[in-house]
Design goal:
The complex is a heterodimer.
Chain A: H1 20-58, E1 63-72, H2 75-78, H3 86-90, H4 94-112, H5 120-124, H6 131-141, E2 149-155, H7 158-165, H8 181-192, E3 196-200, H9 202-206, H10 221-252, H11 257-270, H12 274-288, H13 296-320, H14 324-332, H15 337-365, H16 369-373, H17 388-393, H18 399-408, H19 412-444
Helix pairs in contact in A: 1-19, 4-6, 10-13, 10-15, 11-13, 12-13, 13-15, 14-15, 15-19, 18-19
Chain B: H1 3-14, E1 16-27, E2 30-41, E3 45-49, H2 56-63, E4 73-81, E5 84-85, H3 93-99, E6 100-103, H4 114-124, H5 131-144, H6 148-151, H7 164-177, E7 182-186, H8 194-207, E8 212-216, H9 220-226, E9 229-234, E10 237-243, H10 244-249, H11 254-260
Parallel strand pairs in B: 3-8, 3-9, 6-7, 7-8
Antiparallel strand pairs in B: 1-2, 1-4, 4-5, 9-10
Helix pairs in contact in B: 4-5, 4-7, 5-7
The structure holds adenosine-5'-triphosphate and magnesium ion (MG).
């Protein structure tokens, strides 16, 4: 305590020159910073590779080639009776419409003066297999147009689309019996004439999935609705259940052996592989409770089981982070336990709860494995649901399941769509996480 | 002892607002308070003094059952409020705490507006029927806590944005707004400057007209200034309890004398 404790051996040193110990310490620090920097660089590099790969492979799916054609809706072919009765018109199947498309191509080629060895049917093969059906649907909707010439925008066949996007080349079609070099020549001429164009493809985002033969028509929209329905189920069930359970455990439950067991089990549940929840869902919801197969309701229930532990853990953490003095203050003025929780603790914990919930939902959104077992993978979601009950109960797919389904199919056009689907899914996830971060920032500043 | 004091003592016994008998407090296995007997009279200020860690806060928290919130804490003995045992099974601690208000050792305003901090108690107890009544209660409480002049223009600002001393006065305002019958104050002036301290002491003196006040303090001067009764705690024991004047001028126990004169603590 006295001044005599001053070290005797201390030599005179300048502050301008680092002594040996300081120099060594600084070197260690500099090295450590370098390691950290390197680690971050590696991480960023991986991220960059990921983003670049996804974007380069996936953006193609957002563009689609269309063929603009003027089709003469020949009355003699479409309405043989001449009565314009819908029943009579319906008798003509899509096969009956195919010749009209061939004729339209023939006229177009003649108008443009394109010289091609192709016969009209081979020309019409450039269109998607969807085209005849599209035409028929239009005629059934507008029977009064029979006899007139109407302009249509048809989807081009996936080979043509691939050719325009560079996925299909003249070399790669050597063994391809779906398309020939002459057809590609014809395509080149049509592109030059502006008949075939590539535009942004809203149908990929909002449309329905299509069968194996028509990758050009496949879209994510219905699967997106499936995911949305599942997320709704997850949110509606897991938020109230999770928050109520957390509040009870954190604020009301006495600390006994029993609550400890519950606590440990919740932490364990969070680590259970999702496929386990999937098989549980299959056993309980489908086999035992007889809920429909492939239904988003069942998917939502399974994902709820998976999300609950995440929500409970994050909610309890945010409840714990509220200083106990706030609870004391409320109790001290005569508030009941319930009032102290709902008036003071819960509002303070809300941002953390919200963030945890959104992150739990984001996890659930990207989950594929449990859907495998309840039949949501492999289902071709080609019809959008017609009502809310339908959205929950009728079979559907989900975004990650749809991506998996596309990636599995042989046609490279589907592969491209799988990457496009990943872009959509990532866009959702990034949006959700951003919302979580913004919410957290926003509310945390309040106090 | 002359007749006068004997009469006073007799009066005290009948007018006891709170009487604690044989109170023992345990945190888990360790005993924090041993055999405390205290009679807290109505309309008086009782000071609890003693070295740090001797159990003043613990005892204070027994009086409104705030110790219930600490899982490991166990209270034995009886504490009567107006002759009723507050640890009786039929007693709802929430109702008790509305009668026995508390100002905590560390200021703990709600992270809400100043107004809402003070209005919270009256709101949940239904003390005001209209907004105007509530405004009046808030103003009165803030005035009594000597915070009105500083806070009247920023009632909607968060209470946590006030300085430490202002926060403590806000907590005092919050406690008096519910009109408790007994007010427990745990070192209410430890963060206050001398002017605010004087104002709070004035408030305590004013409260004495209607309520009984129990105040924990580390300041001998403050205890001497504001209290009529003083209890000296040491290592969990109640060493001495009596008239403030008597304890400060003529302590019976050597430990009390040592503490007051600054030799232990
Ligand atoms: N929550 C608790 N759990 C366990 N022990 C506690 C707890 N609170 C207080 N104690 C112990 O009880 C004893 C008395 O504490 P208390 O807070 O009543 O002291 P105090 O007289 O108020 O001191 P100070 O003047 O410093 O505020 C101390 O030994 C303390 O360690
Ligand atoms: Mg204390």
């Amino acid at each position: 305590m006295t001044d005599r404790g001053a070290p005797a051996r201390r030599t005179q040193s300048s502050l301008f020159a680092a002594d040996r110990r300081t120099a060594r310490r600084n070197a260690v620090e500099a090295r450590f910073r370098l390691y950290g920097l390197l680690a971050i660089c590696v991480g960023l590099l991986m991220l960059a590779v990921l983003v670049v790969t996804i974007v380069t492979r996936g953006t193609g799916a957002f563009q689609q080639s269309f063929v603009t054609l003027t089709v003469e809706l020949t009355a003699s072919k479409l309405d043989k009776s001449g009565t314009r009765h819908l029943e009579a018109i319906k008798k003509v199947s899509t096969f009956g419409y195919a010749p009209l498309l061939a004729a339209a191509f023939e006229t177009k080629a003649a108008d443009l003066g394109i010289d091609t060895p192709l016969n009209p049917k081979e020309m019409a093969d450039l269109l998607s297999k969807d085209a005849a059906a599209t035409l028929r649907d239009h005629v059934l909707a507008h029977p009064e147009q029979i006899g007139q010439s109407v302009e249509f925008r048809f989807l081009a066949n996936s080979r043509v689309d691939g050719y325009l996007k560079g996925r299909v080349s003249r070399d790669s079609i050597a063994d391809d019996k779906n398309i020939s070099a002459e057809q590609l020549d014809f395509v080149d001429a049509l592109v030059a004439a502006g008949v075939i164009t590539k535009t942004f493809n809203w149908d990929f985002i909002f449309g329905a999935d299509a069968s194996d033969q028509r990758p050009e028509a496949a879209g994510m929209g219905v699967a997106m609705l499936g995911s949305l329905a599942m997320m709704l189920v997850v949110l509606v069930l897991s938020l109230p259940i999770g928050v109520a359970a957390s509040i009870y455990l954190e604020e009301f439950a006495p600390r006994t052996w029993w609550t400890d067991v519950i606590e440990v089990n919740i932490s364990n549940l969070a680590a259970v592989p999702s496929i386990v929840f999937g098989i549980l869902g299959l056993a309980v919801f489908i086999n035992y409770m007889h809920l429909p197969m492939s239904a988003p309701l069942v998917g939502g229930l399974v994902l709820t089981l998976m999300t609950l532990p995440t929500i409970i853990i994050s909610t309890r953490a945010s409840l714990k982070a509220v200083p106990p003095s706030i609870r004391d203050a409320a109790l001290g003025v005569g508030a009941s336990k319930m009032q102290s929780v709902f008036h003071h603790v819960l509002p303070l914990a809300a941002p953390g709860i919200l963030t945890g919930t959104i992150i739990g939902l984001a996890q659930a959104l990207g989950e594929t494995a449990p859907l495998l077992l309840i039949g949501m993978v492999g289902f071709i979601a080609s019809n959008p649901p017609d009502s809310i009950a339908g959205a929950l109960l009728s079979p559907n797919s989900a975004m990650p399941a749809q991506i998996y389904e596309w990636a599995k199919r042989a046609d490279p056009a589907f592969y491209e769509r799988a990457w496009g689907g990943i872009i959509i899914l990532l866009a959702f996830l990034i949006t959700m996480n951003t919302v979580a971060v913004i919410l957290r920032r926003r509310f945390e500043r309040r106090w | 002892m002359n007749d006068m004091t004997r009469l006073e003592n007799a009066l005290d016994v009948t007018e006891a607002k709170i009487s604690a008998r044989g109170v023992q407090v345990f945190y888990g296995d360790t005993q924090a308070i041993r055999d405390v007997d205290v009679e807290i009279a109505d309309k008086t200020v009782t000071a609890l003094i003693g070295p740090s860690g001797c159990g003043k806060s613990t005892f204070l928290r027994c009086l409104n059952r705030m110790n219930d919130t600490i899982e490991s804490c166990r209270v034995e003995g009886t504490i009567l409020l107006d002759g009723e045992d507050i640890y009786d099974r039929r007693v709802d601690p929430v109702q008790l705490r509305a009668k026995v208000g508390m100002v905590f050792q560390k200021p703990n305003p709600f992270p809400k507006s100043i107004y809402d901090n003070v209005a919270y108690g009256p709101r949940i107890h239904g003390l005001a029927r209209t907004r105007a009544e509530l405004d009046e209660i808030v103003e009165r409480a803030l005035r009594r806590a000597a915070l009105w002049t500083e806070a009247k223009d920023r009632l909607s600002e968060p209470g946590t944005g006030l300085s430490g001393g202002q926060q403590q006065r806000l907590c005092i305002a919050r406690a008096v707004a519910t009109e408790p019958e007994v007010l427990l104050m745990d070192e209410p002036c430890s963060a206050l400057d001398p002017i605010a301290t004087a104002q709070v002491e004035e408030l305590i003196d004013e409260l004495r007209q209607n309520y009984s006040v129990v105040i924990v303090t580390h300041s001998m001067q403050q205890a001497a200034r504001v209290s009529q009764k003083t209890a000296f705690f040491h290592l969990g024991n109640l060493v001495e309890f009596g008239e403030t004047g008597h304890i400060f001028t003529n302590p019976e126990d050597p430990r009390t004398e040592a503490y007051i004169t600054g030799r232990i603590g």
